[in-house]
Amino acid sequence: MKVYRPEIDGLRAISVIAVILYHAEFTVAGHTLLQGGYIGVDVFFVISGFLISRILLTEIEATGRIDFLKFYARRARRILPALFAVIFATMPFAYYFLLPLELTDYANSIGSSLLFGSNIYFYFTAAQYGEPNTLLKPFLHTWSLSVEEQFYIGFPVLLLIVRRYLKSRFLPCVLVAAALSFVFCFVTVRHDPQQAFYSPLTRAWELLAGTLLAYYEVRRGRPRPQPLLAAAGLILVVGSLILFEKGTVHPGRVTVIPVLGTCLVLAFASRENAIGRLLASRPAALTGLVSYSLYLWHYPVFAFWRLTSLDFGNSDKFLAITVTVLVSVVSFVVVEKPLRHSRRSRALWVTLSSSVATIAAAVLSAIMMAGFPHRLDDVYSPLAQANEARLESTFLSLNDNIQAEKPVIFIIGDSHARNYINDKSLLSRTKAIFLTSLRPFEYTANAFRFELISWMKSHSDNARVFVFGNYFQLDESHSCLGLMFQRKSDASICLREASYPPANQPLAQLPLFPSDLAFTYVDIVKLHCDYDKEKCLTSSKGVPFITDWNHMTAEFLTTLIGDILEKRTADLRSDGLLDFLVPPHASQAERTASSQPNATSSASPSN
C-alpha cells in the first residue's frame, strides 16, 4: 500500500526554491545569492530515482513483471499536461519577442523536449548552463526532465532484464552501473564539463543512488528513523546549496555530498523527529506538491522577463517569482492535478494526442520558416539586411593577391576582425599592426593577444602598433536587434541603453593593459562624438550600428570610419594613422590603389 510521505515534498520544496533563487540571481552588495542553487536539480534526481525505483521494484516483487503501459501512462499523466500548458502559454510570447534565430532555437528546444532529448540538444548547441545567454532560453531547464525521462525509459527495461536473467544479482548490477557512471562523470567533467552536465550517463549514478535506497526499503523495510542522520543529511544538502559556487566542478566528486545528504533525509527523516516534522510542515509540503509546476514555469517567466526588461534588478526578480508562484498554483489546480487523477482516460489521451500534434505542427512551421524573419521588416528592412550581407561578405575576401612589393598591415582580432592569415614571411614587410578586439584590455578569452603582438613586432619592419577601442555596446543579455524588435524602435534605443565603453576609462588600470608594449590607442567613440550620445551615429542606410550586443555592422563601420577620416584628419595625422589610412579627400586613384587586397592583410587568432 502506497504511503504518502510529506517530508519528501518538503525536500522537494527546498530543491525547487533553491533552483528558482539560483536562476533569479539576486544580488546583495555585488554578491550573487545562493550560487549553489543548481544542486536542487541533483536532489530532484535522487528523489526521482528513489520513488520510481520503489514503484517498479514493488511491482516486480509482487507480480514478477512490469506493466509498462500502466507505468508510462502514469508518467505521461504526471509530466505532459503541465508541460503542454507551459508550451502553449509561451508560444505567443516567443512569436512576439524572439528574433528569428531565437525563435528557431525555441522551437528546436520544444521539439527536443517532446522527444525526451532536450539535454542532448542543448549539449550540441553549446548551451553553457548558467551563462547569461542561456538565461534567455525559455526551455533550457527541460534538460533535467529529459534526463529523468531517459531514466524512466531505460531503467524499467534493464530492471526486467536483470530480473529474468540475473535474478539475485540486481544489487551488484546497480552498484556496478552506479560506479561506472560516477567514474565516467569524474573523467568527463575534466575535459568536457558540458557533456558531464547534460549527459544521462554522467547523471545516472545520482538516480541510481535513489534506486539503492528504494531496493533496501522494498527488501528489508524502511530503516528506523534516526534524528541525527536525518539532520546530518539536511545539513549536507543545505550546506551544498549555500557553499557551492558557480565555479565548483560539478557534477563530480563534490556532488556526492548533496546526493548522500538526500539519501540520508529520505532514509531517516520522519514525523518522529524534528527534521521530518520540519519538512512535513504544511507550508513545506504544499510547496513540494506544486514543485513540478514551479519548476516548469519559473524559467520561461524569467527568460521572457529578462528579454523585455532593460534592467532585471532585484525588484523585477521578486515580481517574476511572484508571477511564477501565481501561474504555478493555477496550473497545478486547473491542469496538473485534475488531469493527473482524471478517470476520463479516453478524453485525456485525445487531449494529450491533439496537443502533441498541435505543438509539433507549430514547431515544424517555425523551423521550416526560419523563425518567420518577416517579423523584422518594420525595424530592419529586407533591403538593408541584403546590403549588409553583401558588404560584410567583402570583408571576408581581403587576403587575396598579396603582392610581394606591397607593404603589409596586419589586422589582428577576435570576432571583431573577420579574417585569418598565418604567413610568417609577411612579417618582415609589416609596417603596422592593428588590434581590433572585444574590450582589448579586459576580454580574458584572448589574454595572449599582446604577447602575440609583441612577438610579431619583434619580427616586423619596426611596425607601429595601434589598438582600437570599441564603439558602444550593450550588456551581454540583450541584443540591439532584439531591443529594436521588442520596442518597435530604431537603433537609437540601443545607443541609449549602451553600457560600454565608459567615458575617460583609466586604461592603465584594466587587467590586460600591456605596460611593456609601445602602442597607440585609438578611441573610436572619442574621435567620432566625444562620448556625447546625442551626437553619435546609430545607423547607416537603415543598418543599425550593431545587431547583437557588441559587433559593429559592416555598413555602419564603413560609414563611421569615413566620418572620422573626414572630420578628425589632424588627430589621425598626429597619431600616425594617416600613414596607413587614406583620407576621404584623397584622389580616387589613390583610394582605389590603397584599398586593394594586396595592400592589407589580417589575422584572427581566436574567437
Describe this structure in words.
This protein is mostly helical. 58% of the residues lie in helices and 5% in strands. It contains 24 helices and nine strands. The chain has helices spanning 6-24, 39-63, 68-97, 100-114, 118-124, 142-165, 170-191, 193-198, 200-220, 227-243, 256-268, 274-279, 282-289, 291-308, 314-340, 345-368, 382-394, 449-458, 480-487, 492-497, 524-529, 554-567, 569-575, 588-594, and strands at 27-28, 31-32, 408-413, 430-436, 464-468, 520-522, 539-540, 543-544, 601-603. The strands form three sheets. A five-stranded parallel sheet has the order 6-5-4-3-9, covered by helices on one side. Strand 7 (539-540) and strand 8 (543-544) form a beta hairpin. Helix 6 crosses helix 9. The longest helix is centred in the N-terminal third of the chain and has 30 residues, at 68-97. The radius of gyration is 29 Å and the shape is elongated. The chain starts with 5 loop residues before the first helix and ends with a strand. 40% of the residues are buried. Mean pLDDT is 89; it is low at 587-607.
Distance between the termini: 59 Å
Q: Which structural class matches the secondary elements?
A: mainly alpha
User: Tally the helices: what do you get?
Assistant: 24
β-strand percent reads: 5-15%
Biggest sheet record: 5 strands, parallel
Shape label: elongated
Mean pLDDT value: 89
Poorly predicted runs of 5 or more residues: 587-607
> Which percent range fits the helix content?
55-70%
